[in-house]
Amino acid sequence: MAAIKRLLVANRGEIALRVMRTAREMGITVIAVYSEADRNAPHVQYADEAYLLGPAPSNQSYLRGDKILELCKDQQIDAIHPGYGFLSENAAFARQVQDAGIIFVGPSGDSMDLMGDKLSAKQAVKDFGVPLVPGLDEAITDIGQAKAIAQQIGFPVLVKASAGGGGKGMRLVENEEEFEEQMELAVSEAEKAFGNGAVFIEKFVTKPRHIEIQVMGDSHGNVAYLFERECSIQRRHQKVVEEAPSSVLTPELRKRMGEAAVKVCHACNYVNAGTVEFLLDADLNFYFLEMNTRLQVEHPVTEMITGIDLVREQIRVAEGHPLSFSQEDLRINGHSIEVRVYAEDPANNFLPDIGKLEVYRRPQGSGVRVDDGFEEGMEVPIYYDPMLAKLIVHADTREAAMDRMIRAIDEYHIVGVQTTLGFCRFVMGHEAFRSGDFDTNFVKMHFTPALLDRKLSPEEAEVAALVAVMAMQQLQGRQSSSDAYPVQPISAWKLGRR
Ligand code: MV4
């Protein structure tokens, strides 16, 4: 066991604070790093010590692994927590940290490399009996051969870049005629974006849900799954709402998916916290997509339903302790939902909005948690992710959690920048979300900016909502109201209220 006394958090904003809070509870001295734009940031003020890395742009500050390592040597740091983003999934950095005799609070560089490449990940998990989307698990360059395989699989297919992930480097091919052109585009895009033109082909799963399993492994070979998070409410591969548990998993399916996620961990000798992503199709078949080798943004919903502090567990595992729980100890308690509050304008195609937080008042009360990195009066910097906060609720049931979320959103008071709060409230009140009957197409299917326009009178809003719904139904070729996925207008009273 190597006790951690001085922990450097190589990150900023809400996640830096989140990590420092737990570390402090554990009696660990917490050290912040910061850029010139973050001199007065809350994570700097919170830390016991803080060191300047460089100018605001990430590549001159939070991505400077060399500077961070030098600092660690000068300041007798025992361990680095990378948070998410920045250096968190950089295998070379993880190795350098380890080689310098410093603990990296995360998995090994080898696990990162194996899971970072989508093809090597598929190949690694295949032998462990983890279900994969029908398709190829090797790179393909010959277009004729690729086309023959696509025909075998059956259209539509997706051409995916092996070096991609999180939606980057994917191309949908609807039919044989488009195949050559789309494949050529996919390869040249992958070469440009990742310096690696390797692509593979998968059957396109049409109405998938995104279900991910939280896993935790220790250095003694123990691995446990901490159930699922449902993250299907996304726009352009950016998650907006996450919840745990998913309303569609049965205990039996949850166990099978959890056990498959554990197999993925064994396939890459995984240690520390990680997330295994699956697609779940309309018939509840699940397929491994990729593994994220870090603590994720949405980890709080898992903490709320399991009662486990994932950062505490990460630190303990990094010190060499075995997991503090076994699979049999874990139970799901209640329901948790998280919404991400971005400084973006939903009425203007979610364009990032910068400015000063003139008013910033957080919701409070039972079952409400806010993880943020801002205070009233602060400017929202343009250099980093525009996420202002994560608003998390916990309640006994899904229904109560949704109602609590609406209450909390209504208590949240932000003036000075446009935010996605109104959009999140729209989701919370939408029949498709409330019923649990939704998939990754939710935002595309149900959202138009007119539904949020607060300048409209209630009557105008009602008309706008009806027009939007009718247009949507026409696009989908639906005439009757007995469709499986009814699109319902939301009440004008609710729309006009905010
Ligand atoms: C897919 C898919 C359908 N079929 N693969 C998007 C992110 C990346 N992790 C993989 N993604 C997808 N892969 C097959 N074979 C649909 C998506 C997808 C998606 C997945 C999860 C959440 C939102 C999504 C939005 C669009 C597409």
What does this structure look like?
The structure is a single chain. With 498 residues, this protein is of the alpha+beta class. It has four domains: 6-105, Rossmann fold (3-Layer(aba) Sandwich); 134-203, Dna Ligase, domain 1; 209-452, D-amino Acid Aminotransferase, Chain A, domain 1 (2-Layer Sandwich), CATH 3.30.470; 458-496, no CATH class. It has 17 helices and 22 strands. The strands form six sheets. An eight-stranded antiparallel sheet has the order 13-12-9-10-11-14-21-19, with helices on both faces. A five-stranded parallel sheet has the order 3-2-1-4-5. Helix 4 (91-99) packs antiparallel against helix 5, helix 7 crosses helix 8 (179-194) and helix 12 (398-411) runs antiparallel to helix 13 (421-429). The protein is globular. It starts with 5 loop residues before the first strand and ends with a helix. The model is unreliable at 478-498 (pLDDT under 50). Residues 133, 158, 165-167, 202-205, 208, 210, 234, 237, 277, 279, 289-290, 440 line the site of ligand MV4. Ligand MV4 is lined by residues 133, 158, 165-167, 202-205, 208, 210, 234, 237, 277, 279, 289-290, 440.
